[in-house]
Design a protein that fits this description.
By secondary structure, this protein is mainly beta. The chain is built from 2 helices and 36 strands.
Length: 541
C-alpha cells in the first residue's frame, strides 16, 4: 500500500507517515494573522477514491477555524504546476486532488486563508502513485508555445488499446504540455462500464462533470473527475452510438439506433434530462433518401450518423451522416439544407424532392459555381471543395459551420489524400455555401485520417484544434493534435499520440478537447453555451 507523507511547508510541525485513507491529527503551521489560532485538527488522504481514476485523490481536512483552501500539485517543472482555489469557507474541507503523475512521489500543497484572504497556514503531502496501466500510448510533443497556446491540458477520448488489439473498455486520458499523462480512467474492472464503448468519447456538461453514452449498456452517464458515476439514463427502445449532446435546457440529444429495425445509425433522439422520457425523434428514413448509395454500398448503415450539433438561434439540429453529408433539420424532422455534393439525390421517404435543399457553392467572388463536375463532387474548384465523410461539425459565433473534412474517397478517386479543418459560410435565404477557411490540406498524407477525428474552435483566442485520430502514414499508426492560430495558421501546439498496437481500423482516438482539469478555472468549456455557476474559481496573487 502506498504511503502518504506530511511535509510541513513552514517547518513548524512534522506529521507522521500516513497510510492512504487513515486519519492523523496535530498542530500544523503557525498563523500569519496574530489574532487567529489556526491548526489542523485531523486530516486523511485517499488515493483513487472511486477505484477508477488512479491519478486522483481526496484530502479531507478539519481545521480549528473556518478557512478556504488553495491547492497546488507540484509539477516536474515550474510550468507544470497545477493550482486550484476552492472558495467555500468552512472548518471541514474535502479537497479533490487531480493531476497527479503516474509512478511518482507527488507533492501536494494546501494553503489556508481566512474569508478575507489572510494567510493562515499551510500543509504539504507526498502522494506516491503506481505506474500507468499497460498499453497506454506514447506522447511526443512536437510544438508547445506556452505563451500563446490555450489554457489547459489535452483530453483524449482514447479508443482503449489492450494487448491483442481489443478496444474495450475505452480509456480516456489527459496529458499536459510536456506529454505527461496526468489523469485517466481505468474501467476494466468496473461492474457497469467494464466494456465501455463511448464512440466519440467524453465531454463536459455545463455543470462541469463529464458525460458520455455507452453502446454496451445502452445508457447515458454523468461522471465526476474522480470517476464516480453520478447519474445515468437508460435509452429504452434505442441504443447509443457516436455522440450525445447537452442542450442549453439540459436535455440530451444523441445519435441512435432504433431497436427492432433492419437499419442502424439513422435516428437522432432527444430525451428529457429530469425524466428520461423521449421528447423528440428524428427518423432519417423519412426525411432523407435511404436509397442514395453513391458514397456507400452499405444498405444497413446507409447514413452512419456520427455527430449532432444544436443551433439555439433557430432551435434546429445539424446531423453529420458520414456517407451522406451534413444535414440541418427543424424540430419536426424537416430538412432545412443539405451540405453534400449533388450526386445521386432524389426523393425522401415522404416523396419530397431533396434537390431543393442542396446548397449552391460560391467562388471567392461570390459567384455561383456551375461546373457540374464540381457540383457532383467529381472535381474540386480552386475556391471550393465539398466535405467528404465528415465529422465533428461546430457552429461558430458568426453562424458559420466548421467541421473535420476527412477526405475519404475525395472526388470519388482518392484525390489527395489529405484531411482538413474547413469553415463554410451558409446563406439559408439564398441556399448558398462558400468556403472561407481551411487548414490541413498543406500537411498532406501525414495528417490524413480516413475515419473518426475532431475539430474545435475557441472564439476567445481564435485558435483551432485539428485532431486527425486514425492516421496511417508510411509504417506508422498514430493520431495528432494540432492547435493553430486562425489568422496566421501558425502551429502553437502539436502532439503525436502513438498507441503500442493499432486497434480496430487503426483508430488512436475519436475526439480530443483542450480543457482545464478542474472544471471551473479559466477559459474552459469553449464549445458550450449558456451561463455557469462558478463554484470553483482561481485566485491569483
Amino acid at each position: 500500500m502506498k504511503k502518504i507523507v506530511h511535509l510541513p511547508i513552514f517547518g513548524i510541525a512534522i506529521f507522521a507517515l500516513l497510510i492512504a485513507g487513515c486519519d492523523s491529527s496535530g498542530s500544523s503551521t503557525s498563523p500569519t494573522d496574530p489574532g487567529t489560532s489556526f491548526s489542523i485538527l485531523s486530516d486523511s488522504v485517499i488515493l483513487n477514491p472511486s477505484g477508477y481514476a488512479p491519478l486522483t485523490a481526496t484530502i479531507t481536512v478539519e481545521t480549528a477555524v473556518a478557512s478556504k483552501v488553495d491547492l497546488r500539485v507540484l509539477g516536474k517543472d515550474e510550468t507544470s504546476n497545477l493550482d486550484q482555489a476552492f472558495t467555500d469557507v468552512s472548518t471541514t474541507h474535502e479537497i479533490p486532488v487531480l493531476g497527479l503523475y503516474a509512478d511518482y512521489s507527488n507533492i501536494v500543497q494546501l494553503t489556508f486563508y481566512s474569508e478575507n484572504d489572510v494567510l493562515l497556514g499551510s500543509e504539504e503531502y507526498m502522494i506516491p502513485t503506481d505506474p500507468l496501466i499497460p498499453d497506454m500510448p506514447a506522447i511526443e510533443i512536437v510544438v508547445a508555445n506556452l505563451d500563446e497556446m490555450d489554457e489547459g491540458w489535452t483530453f483524449v477520448s482514447n479508443f482503449g488499446h489492450r494487448t491483442g488489439g481489443n478496444v474495450a473498455p475505452q480509456q480516456p486520458f489527459m496529458f499536459d504540455h510536456n506529454g505527461d499523462i496526468r489523469w485517466f480512467l481505468d474501467l476494466e474492472d468496473h461492474p457497469v462500464l467494464g466494456g465501455l464503448f463511448s464512440d466519440n468519447g467524453l465531454e463536459r456538461l455545463f455543470n462541469g462533470n463529464l458525460y458520455f453514452g455507452d453502446r454496451n449498456s445502452a445508457s447515458i452517464y454523468e461522471m465526476d473527475m474522480l470517476g464516480n458515476i453520478l447519474n445515468s439514463w437508460p435509452l429504452n427502445g434505442y441504443n447509443f452510438h457516436h455522440q450525445v449532446l447537452e442542450k442549453p435546457n439540459g436535455n440530451f440529444v444523441f445519435t441512435a439506433d432504433k431497436l427492432g429495425l433492419d437499419t442502424v445509425e439513422d435516428f437522432t433522439v432527444e430525451i428529457d434530462r429530469a425524466t428520461g422520457s423521449v421528447v423528440n425523434e428524428w427518423d432519417f428514413r423519412e426525411s432523407l433518401q435511404e436509397s442514395r448509395l453513391v458514397m456507400t454500398s452499405d444498405t444497413v448503415d446507409w447514413f452512419h450518423g456520427n455527430a449532432v450539433e444544436y443551433d439555439q438561434d433557430d432551435n434546429t439540429i445539424m446531423v453529420s451522416g458520414r456517407t451522406q453529408g451534413l444535414v440541418k433539420f427543424d424540430d419536426d424532422n424537416n430538412v432545412v439544407w443539405i451540405m453534400s455534393n449533388h450526386n445521386g439525390w432524389g426523393t425522401n421517404g415522404r416523396g419530397e424532392d431533396l434537390n431543393q435543399y442542396l446548397l449552391q457553392p460560391l467562388d471567392a467572388n461570390n459567384q455561383p459555381i456551375t461546373d457540374s463536375d464540381v457540383l457532383n463532387g467529381f472535381e474540386s474548384h480552386p475556391d471550393f471543395e465539398w466535405n467528404w465523410y465528415q465529422h465533428a461539425p461546430q457552429i461558430l459565433p458568426n453562424g458559420n459551420v466548421m467541421l473535420f473534412d476527412n477526405g475519404d474517397n475525395r472526388n470519388y478517386k482518392w484525390e489527395g489524400p489529405y484531411s482538413r479543418a474547413v469553415e463554410y459560410e451558409i446563406d439559408e435565404e439564398n441556399m448558398t455555401i462558400k468556403q472561407v477557411w481551411q487548414y490541413g490540406k498543406e500537411r498532406g498524407a501525414e495528417l490524413f485520417s480516413q475515419i473518426v477525428s475532431d475539430i474545435d474552435y475557441n472564439p476567445e483566442t481564435r485558435h483551432v484544434f485539428f485532431s486527425p485520430g486514425a492516421i496511417r502514414y508510411n509504417d506508422e499508426r498514430y493520431g495528432v493534435v494540432v492547435e493553430v492560430d486562425y489568422d496566421t495558421k501558425e502551429v502553437l501546439f502539436e502532439a503525436k499520440i502513438t498507441p503500442p498496437q493499432a486497434a480496430w481500423n487503426f483508430i488512436t482516438f475519436h475526439r480530443t478537447e483542450r480543457m482545464t482539469i478542474y472544471p471551473f478555472s479559466g477559459a474552459i468549456l469553449q464549445k458550450k453555451r449558456g451561463s455557469f455557476d462558478r463554484l470553483i474559481t482561481t485566485r491569483s496573487r
